[in-house]
Predict the 3D structure of the following.
Amino acid sequence: MSRARIKVFGANELVSVDVNIVTSTITIEDCAVNANEIQLDIPITGTVFGTLLNYKGALERLGDAVNDKPYSAPPIAPVLYIKPANTFNRYGAEIPMPAGISRLEMGAALGVVIGKQAVAVDEENALTHVAGYTIINDVSVPHDSVYRPAVRHKARDGFCPIGPWIIDRQEVDTPDDLIIRVFINDKLQQENSTSNLIRSVSRLLTDVTEFMTLNPGDVLLVGVPEEAPQAKIGDKVRIEIAGIGSLENFIVDEKESKWRGTI
């Protein structure tokens, strides 16, 4: 069992629980329930910051394109973007497929949840600013450009499932060696590891907080591995991160989604 925090739908606060990350079982006051048997809400409260090109394979996949204009060189600092609050989605909920789009990319990402204000932190003590870790599906409409904010592709309603919980930092020996797997309809479609990060979690926190404050409740995504698998309407998507758990969602036509009319 691992110590974690969850938010139940309709509640105002996170509660501490014990979870079995293999069976997705939650123990609350000696009562064990499966994550699918209760409505889990989004367990984070702050801003979600994404990081581009932090996996070695993702940068290598660009090849010589990194030398093209406007930058003419590989990035020398973290390439960040924001998943705004309208994208936040919960465990077990539907991900809306926009009209005119046939497939969506499933961006499996480790979310680093900030526990105390982080300003210009040093690499050695960076993890002391972390409250815990969660799973993020950084959903995106497939696109090629990384040189401009892809708001229309990455910031649509429901495009950021989060959860199912926040695993306490002390439960994870090292966030820099976690296997990440993506299953679509229970078939393995992607496997990678945070051991392939260009910037480790500590280094990323150091580099980001050099120019930007991260506050309690904020979440920093360490990056999305190259060749994110794609899903279509009707597909069930499960992202597993070793030591953290599993995040499940399914794809529906936006006309049948609760987000209808808001995209």
User: Anything to note?
Assistant: The chain has a mean pLDDT of 90. The radius of gyration is 18 Å. The domain at 46-256 is CATH 3.90.850.10 (Fumarylacetoacetate hydrolase; domain 2). Helices lie at 56-62, 151-154, 201-209.
